[in-house]
Structure formats: C-alpha cells, structure tokens
Amino acid sequence: MDQGMHDGLHDGSDEGLHDGSEKPVEPVGMVLGTDDATPLDFWVAIAEGQYLQLDDVVVCDRPVPGRDERVAISGVVSQVRARHEGARFDSDVFLIERGVLPAEVVEAAKVLTTRVEPEVYVPPLPGAAVRRATRGERDQALFFDRMEQKLPIGLGRDGDTLFANLEFIDGTRGAHVNISGISGVATKTTYATFLLYSLFNSGVLAEDALNTKALIFNVKGEDLLFLDHDNTRLDEAQRDRYRTLGLIPGAFKSVSVYAPPRRNDPDAVPDVSTRTQGVHSFYWTLADFCEEELLPFAFADAEDERNQYTIVIANVVAMLKREGMRVGDDGAWQVDGVTLRTYHQLVDFVRERLEDDTTRPAWAGPATGAGTINAFLRRLLTSQKALSRLVRADVPIRANHRIETEEQVTVVDLHNLDDRAKRFVVGVTIRRTFEKKEQSGLARPLLFIVLDELNKYAPRDGESPIKEILLDIAERGRSLGVILIGAQQTASEVERRVISNCAIRVVGRLDPAEAARPEYGFLPAAHQKRATIAKPGTMFVMQPEIPVPLVVEFPFPAWATRISERGPNPSAIGAAALPDDPFNGLA
Fold first, then answer.
1. How far apart are CA 365 and CA 585, in angstroms?
2. For residue range 349-394, what is the model confidence (pLDDT) as tens digits?
3. What is the mean pLDDT of the chain?
4. If you count Cβ atoms within 10 Å of the first and of the last residue's Cβ in the chain, which end, N or C, has fewer?
5. Which of 166-180, 240-254, 258-272, 338-352 has the lowest mean pLDDT?
6. Are 269 and 261 in contact (CB under 8 A)?
7. Exposed, middle or buried, 170 (CB in 10 Å: 0-12/13-18/19+)?
8. Interval 518-524 mean pLDDT
C-alpha cells in the first residue's frame, strides 16, 4: 500500500471519530477513489496491518456543506478482494514474487450501506477514513437501537448477539417467518426450534411467555420427539454461546407429544419407536369426522379448481351431518339407521348412496353427472388406506385422542404417515386451532405454528382446503396472534401470497439453481453466492428494518434432536432417569 495513504490514516483526519470515550477508534482504511462511491455502497482500501472480513460493520463520516453536523454512513462488508497493483498479466504474479516487477498487494472491501444518520443521502468522499464500528455504532448501524423488543436470533461473525425486532414477528407491525434451504444441510427445523426457545426464554415476551404456545408438525424421522430432554452432546463452548445470547441452555420445559396409532392395532398404540412413554395417540372419531365436516380434508391434494367433484364433496358432507347422529360413547355415527364405526364402513355407506338411483340425487346433487360422481368415488376409495387408522370409532375413546395445545410446545408426529394422511392431519389440526383462536377474540397469548415442507401444503399451483387455511393465516393471522413459521427446500414452489406475508425471511444452504430464483431477490448477489456454500448452523436473516441480510450463526441445540443425544428430562416428576431404564420419569 502507498505509504502516503497509510500515513493519511493518522494525520488527524479521524479526529472526533470515536464512540464517545476518550480513546479514538483506529481506522481500518479509506474510501476508494477509483471505484464509484454512492450512498448505497462503496469500496474501502484496507490499510497495512489492518483487515476486514465479510459481515464486519464499518462507519465513515463526511461533512456536508451548509450543515454543522457530519453525516455518519454505516454499512456491512459484503465482499473482500486482494490484488496486485501494477500487474498487467496473470503471469506477472511470478515475476512480482521474485522481485523482478514492482507491485503492491492491495486489499479492498465492498460495503453495503445500512444506515445514514442523519438521513442526508450523500456518498462518502474518497479518502475518508473508515473505522470498524464500536458497540454503540454497531447497534445503530443495524437498527438495534430502535428496537424496543429485541429477540436474540444468533451470533454475528464478531461473536456478539444479533437481534430481530419482535414487532415484525408478533403481529404488531408484521408477522410470520419463512425459512428456506436444502434438506438435511440448511438446519431449517433446528433453527425454527431455536427461535422458539429464544422467544420462550429470552424475556422478550415478558409475562406472556408462560401462556404462549407452539404447535410443531414433525414430518421427518423422530428428531423432534425429545425437545423436553437435555442434549448430552452440548459442550461448554456451546453453553457459553447461549449465555452470550442471554439464554440459559437447556431443554424445553413444557412439551406434549402426539403420534398416530399403529396400523391395524386394536389398542391404538402410538406409532413411534424411539420414545415409548409420554406420547398420546391421536385420531378422530366418526362423530368428529361428520360433525366437524372433515371430509374435504380427505381430498386435500392440490387440484385444478375446475374439477366438479367438489360439488359432490359438499353434498355428502351436508347429508352426513344433517341426517346423522352420535350414538353410544365411543364416537360412532348413525345415518339412516346404519351405525358407522370405521372409516371403511363410512366409505362403503357413501358409495352405496351414490350408486343407488333413488338416493343419488340427494347425496350427489340433482344435476351431477356420472363422470363427476365416479371421480369423487375414486378418490374416496383410495383415501381408505391413508385415513382408516385416523378416523375410527372401533376403540374405546381415549382421554387425549384429540390434539390439544395445552402445553407450551405441542409436537405432532407425522413421519410414519403417507402424504395424503399428513395433509389431512395438518389441515384438520390447523383449522381447529385457528378457529379456536379466532373464537377467543384475543391476539395474546400468541400461537406459533411450525410447518416444514410448506410447498406440499401451500403449493404455488392448484387449490386445496389446507392452502386456503394457510393463506388465511398468512393474511389474517397477525391480527389473531397466530404466527406461521414455515420452512421448505424451495420457496419458488410455495404460494406467493404466503411468502410475501412473511416479515422475516431466513435462508440456509441453498441449491445454486434455487438461489438464482426471483424469490431470493432480497439477497444481494454476494449473499446469494454465499448461501450455496453456507455451513450448517449459518443462516441469512432478512427483516424489514435492516436493508441487508444478517449472517447469523446459532448454537448447537441444547435439547435432544435424536435418541442418541437424549439426556434426562428436567421437567419429569419423580426419580431421575436411570441408565438401565432410559425412559424412566417421562411424563
């Protein structure tokens, strides 16, 4: 680097550039004059003996004619380069290293402006000293100083805490979180549960934290069945990261787990293999199915809205409810004197009514053609395999057979269900939960719904009952205190209106082709490239107040994410779990 430039960093031009203390802040470089400097971005030549890395926060000042105060321009480093000054050809590098050609190594960093204070949008002047932001300047550059309710969302590259504004999550000024990334690498679900842990334990919700609920759908493996168990792999370095965030590391304290019954099991035992206690088996009785008009969710695949068999669905739903009644205490349903106790019996009954010439007009509609009825019947018959263990009245009613959000975190395990059954459970559960929240008329306490594989439930094309509910939550949920935390591998395959209503957008590791999609236009070009090589545990978080994404690293889960990590359940009543009885003490 030119010695004059280096000396210029100490010639008094940085006078007054400090954080309010007596000791001035050492500049790291100067604004380049060979690249355009604009109010939105500029390049910094890095001084000898100094360095800048990606995501560093820097500040420079400039005077403005006619104004007494200087304008402070803050930004985040988005790119860093190093090159030889004086070289013309690629092969010159060998001559320069041997001392044959004179040249200087120059490093420069590109800065994306995040804040201009006061808001006089002028470019920084070439030669202006640039300094690494102090704590107060960092908070100002990233708008943390304006956040009244700061939610810790992870650590920055400097090891300090990064925040999100709760007002853009809880519905005050915006709501909903969307997370994208490659399956198994982007740690989408892990980050979603980390956000919940921070919400419940950081104090940002104050007294509302105790009554705030989370409904999590577990769609892959049994990784989320041990949220109430400490993680035995959490080392002291990771514990320190939680403490830096202002969190006490540990498991979730209030968790209930629901799983579907095993297929063809007369006792409706939960279909899980790793967690053998503290799991409720969920299902719907025939009476629930008919009274709550759940049949449309058996046809929850996204279909062309021009299909006419939806008319048959509406008629069958109305007839089952109007002509039927609850019998006994096991949830059986009786229609036209016929008692239905299994889903197979229900399907056969409806098929008979639609095939009978005398009953067909009432059950299908007077002007419905045979082709439409057959299309309905084909789909109804194929639903039996998926729903027979979920809709039943052939077992004594269990006290906890309905999914309820009584505990702080409710996990609904779906991984052993096929896609059609998953859609049914997700659609019915979210609709009932949303309706209960709507009936309460209160936005607080909040209810968070965590749903992975969002592209399956709210796909870009087609219509379905689940998609309608998720759209309703995306558009009206913030006013009712229902917050969606959705995740998917490809945001390009999710309904646009669901994505556009998410105030907070998070990106983990991305496929290169997916990263080029317009849905990721909020990421600067450098961040799009970085997202294709991001390591697990690194997320790019975009929020409305900050014009550039925050690159966040979050700590290893303090709760068990698989059976091999499972430690004691800290909330279990009674004796601690013994080595020879790993499930002892589970609620």
1. 56
2. 999 999 999 999 999 988 888 888 998 999 999 999 999 999 999 8
3. 89
4. C
5. 258-272
6. yes
7. buried
8. 92
Task: Measure CA 40 to chain center.
Answer: 29
What DSSP letter does each residue of 50-97 carry, written as one string? Answer: ----TT-EEEEEE--TT-SSPEEEEEEEEEEEEEEES--STTHHHHHH
pLDDT score, position 310: 84
Which tokens go with 446?
């909040």
Q: Distance (Å, rounded) from C-alpha 483 to C-alpha 114? A: 28
d(CA 142, CA 162): 9
Segment holding 324, helix H or strand E: strand 324-327
Backbone angles phi, psi at 78, to 5 degrees: -110, -15
Q: What residues does 106 pair with on adjacent strands? A: 83
Distance CA 61, CA 74 (A): 9
Q: Would you tell me how many other CB atoms lie within 10 Å of the CB of residue 353?
A: 20
For the chain, residues classed under CATH 3.40.50.300 are 150-282+400-565
The answer to whether 397 touches 243, Cβ cutoff 8 Å, is no
What is the rounded distance in angstroms from the CA atom of residue 163 to the CA atom of residue 44? 27
List C-alpha distances in Å: 213 to 247, 408, 409, 433, 442.
19, 5, 6, 11, 14
How far, in Å, CA of 51 to CA of 28, rounded? 7
Rounded-to-integer distance, Cα 210 and Cα 167, Å: 19
CA terminus-to-terminus distance, the chain = 66
Closest CA to 486 of 465, 402, 185, 471: 471
Distances (CA, A) of 579 to 225, 276, 565, 582, 585: 19, 16, 14, 6, 12
Instruction: Tell me the two tokens of residue 228.
Output: 């109430």
Mean pLDDT along residues 122-128 = 96
| DSSP characters over 150-217 | EEEEEE-TTSSEEEEEGGGTBSSS-B-EEEE--TTTS-HHHHHHHHHHHHHHSSTTGGGGGT-EEEEE
Question: CA-CA distance, 380 to 119, in Å (whole number)?
Answer: 62
- CA–CA dist 74, 114 (Å, integer): 6
- CATH superfamily for 150-282+400-565 is P-loop containing nucleotide triphosphate hydrolases (3.40.50.300)
Separation between Cα atoms, residue 229 and residue 556, nearest integer Å: 14
Alpha-carbon span 62 to 69, nearest angstrom = 9
